[in-house]
Amino acid sequence: MARTQGSHSDITGPRVRAAALRLFASQGYAAVSMRKIASEVGLQVGALYNYTADKQSLLFDLMNEHLQALLEARANASANGDPMDRLQEFTAFHIRYHEERPDEVFIAYMELRNLSPENFVVIEKLRDRYEGELEAILSDGVRAGVFDLAEPKVSARAIISMLNGVTTWYRRGGRLSLDEVETVYWNMVRKAVSR
């Protein structure tokens, strides 16, 4: 399919993804039509298909890009050291990385049900890699006698759910600084896993 005359794929493509991200996060994937996305970007609906195959592809691409970037950002984290220190570092990283990306977090966790089965498998594997890092930290802590957890996998998911909550209520310039929020959440996580 030919690109619309006068359009710039390096500009319009990211604008399409940004509009879809905002709309999916604020209204929900099911409530957002391709017509609504096109209108948000100032395109005719037909022109939208120059930048994406369909709405499902948009949702998948947004989730995939978020999780790939998250895993890349985590690649430099140390897998060595005391499990408590590693858990604190993971907690701080998760809060700071996700605080800047509330729409991406919402979509990556709340819109899984709208993925096609084949897209779900891909996204689930990426999420499992990230959650698996936390599960490994918790398992190491249990083996070292530092943490008291019967189910590290369940605990990892519970901790991530709690940490994701920061994106729903925290706003810069509010009563608490991000450093203070990080300290509060770290204390909750530490108490939840400690002997």
Automatic annotation (TrEMBL):
<dbReference type="InterPro" id="IPR001647">
    <property type="entry name" value="HTH_TetR"/>
</dbReference>
<feature type="DNA-binding region" description="H-T-H motif">
    <location>
        <begin position="33"/>
        <end position="52"/>
    </location>
</feature>
<dbReference type="GO" id="GO:0003700">
    <property type="term" value="F:DNA-binding transcription factor activity"/>
</dbReference>
<keyword id="KW-0238">DNA-binding</keyword>
<keyword id="KW-0805">Transcription regulation</keyword>
<dbReference type="InterPro" id="IPR036271">
    <property type="entry name" value="Tet_transcr_reg_TetR-rel_C_sf"/>
</dbReference>
<dbReference type="InterPro" id="IPR041490">
    <property type="entry name" value="KstR2_TetR_C"/>
</dbReference>
<dbReference type="InterPro" id="IPR009057">
    <property type="entry name" value="Homeodomain-like_sf"/>
</dbReference>
<dbReference type="Pfam" id="PF00440">
    <property type="entry name" value="TetR_N"/>
</dbReference>
<dbReference type="InterPro" id="IPR050109">
    <property type="entry name" value="HTH-type_TetR-like_transc_reg"/>
</dbReference>
<dbReference type="GO" id="GO:0000976">
    <property type="term" value="F:transcription cis-regulatory region binding"/>
</dbReference>
<feature type="domain" description="HTH tetR-type">
    <location>
        <begin position="10"/>
        <end position="70"/>
    </location>
</feature>
<protein>
    <submittedName>
        <fullName>AcrR family transcriptional regulator</fullName>
    </submittedName>
</protein>
<dbReference type="Pfam" id="PF17932">
    <property type="entry name" value="TetR_C_24"/>
</dbReference>
<keyword id="KW-0804">Transcription</keyword>
